[in-house]
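agent> fetching stored inputs for the alpha-D-glucopyranose docking request
agent> found them:
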Amino acid sequence: MSRWPIARFLDAAGVAGAEAVLRNASLHLGGEVVGTVAACEPALDVQNYRECFVRDFAVSVAAFLEVGETDVVRSFVRTVAALRPDEAGSIIPPASGLMPASFTVEREEREDGVRERVVADYGQRAIGRVAPVDSALWWLLIVRAYQRSTGDTALARDPVVCAAIERVLSFYLRPQFEMLPSLLVPDGSSMIDRRMGVHGHPLDIQVLFWAGLRAGLELLSDGHALVEQVFERLVALGRHLRQDYWLDRKRVEVIRRYPVEEFGTLLENPWNLHPDAIPVWTMAWLAEGGGYYAGNLGPARLDVRFFALGNLLAVSTGLATSDQAQALFDLIEHHRRDLLCDSGMKLTYPPLEERDWYTQTGSDQKNVAWSYHNAGTWPMLLWPLVSAARVAGRSELAAEAMTAAAPRLARDAWPEYYDGPYGGLIGRRARLEQTWSVAAVLAGGTLLARPEAPDPFAFERDEALEEAIAQAKPDTVGRID
Ligand code: GLC
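agent> prediction call returned; pasting C-alpha cells
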C-alpha cells in the first residue's frame, strides 16, 4: 500500500510507479538522503537535471511532509544552510544571502575511501548565467513548512540554519536602487529561468518574497532585531501588491481613463502607464468577470500576462484577500479551456508570439509559443493549484484537474511540461520522469484526499499584519474601492 492516499486519482500501479520515480530521485550525502534530483529519465542529456533544484525540491517536501517523512527535509535544510556562495568558484562571488538554484554531490574515489563534496550552482554554471533569486525564498518556506508540520523548533534554532535565515533576510531586505517595496530582479530569476521579459518586478518573485518574509516572521525568535524590519516590509509590500498588481474589470476601467505625465507625490498614475497598453484580450477576459494579479509592474510597464505560480501562491500564502481569491478562481473557471489542461496548468498565458517572441526571448527556440515557459502546460502546478483551491474553498475544480491529469501523466512517464494551446502534446524537449511532476500529484492528491489535514505550506490570516496593511498610508490618490 502506498503511503499517499490518492487512489481516487490514480490506480495502484500508477501510484507505485510514481513512488518509484520519487525514490529513484534520492540524492545521497554521507549515507543520508539530502534531496531529490530534478529528473531521472535514463537518456538524460542535460546534466543539471541530475542536480537537486531548491525550487523543485519544495514540491517533494510537500509530498514528504504529508506522509511524515521528515528526515530528508531536515537533512536538506541543513545541507543548503551550510553552503556558502564564496565556495562557488565563480569570477565574481555570488552575494552572501543568495542560495543556489541547484546542487549535487561529487564523489571522488581515493585510496583512503570515497570523498564526497557538495557542489552548488548559484548561476555561475546555469544556462544563461541566471541568478536564482527565488531559491532562498523557497528555502525559507521549506524550513517553515517543516517546523509547522513537525512542531520541531530546534531546526530553526540550529546555529547554522539560524545564521542562514538571518543572512537571507538581511540580504533580501537591503536597500536597492529604487523606491518600491517589491524586489527588482533580472530576467530568468525564478522558475522561468530563461529570458522571457520577466525582469523588473515580476509577480512570481514578489509573491515568493511576501511568503518568504511571512515564513521569516514565524522562524525568527521573539524580539529578534530583524522582526520589525520584516514586518514593515510585509506591510508595504502587501499593500502595494494588493492595490497595484490586482486587475479586474473595475480596475481596467480605471486604468483605461488614467491621466499621464503626472508629476508629484500623490498621483493617480504613478507608473505613468499608457492606457492603450491594455491589450484587447485582457479587456475581453476581464469583461467576463473574475480577476488576477498582473505579471509585472514598473515605469510605464504593466505586464498583463497571467502567471500561474504567482497567482496561485498569492492565494495560499494569504496575499490575496478572500474576494480576490474568489475572483481568481472565477477567472480560472471561466477560462478553464485556456488555463487548465488534461496535463496540468498553463505556466503563463497568452504566449509571446512573432516579433514579441523574437525580441523578448532573444529568439529562444525552447520557448517558442505554447511551449515550455511560453504558455506551456506544467504538471507541477497541480500542487499550488490544489493548495490555493483549498484556501479559496474551490477544491472541486482542482480535483477535476487532478482527475484528468494524474492518469495521463503516469501513462506518459511523468513529463516535465506539455505543448500546445490546450496542453495536449508532450513538450518537445520535456524530460520524462520529472520529479516535481510526480511530487505534485502525490502532494496535491493527498491534500485533496485529506481536506481536514493542515497544508504545511499554506498561511493563515495574521490579524496584526492585516490591520497594519489596512491602516497603511495611501501612496496614491484616485484609488478604487
Ligand atoms: C528548468 C526549469 C526550472 C526547473 C529546472 C529543473 O530549468 O525552467 O524551473 O527548476 O528545469 O526542473
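agent> quick read of the result: The CA atoms of residues 64 and 70 lie 7 Å apart.
agent> awaiting further instructions
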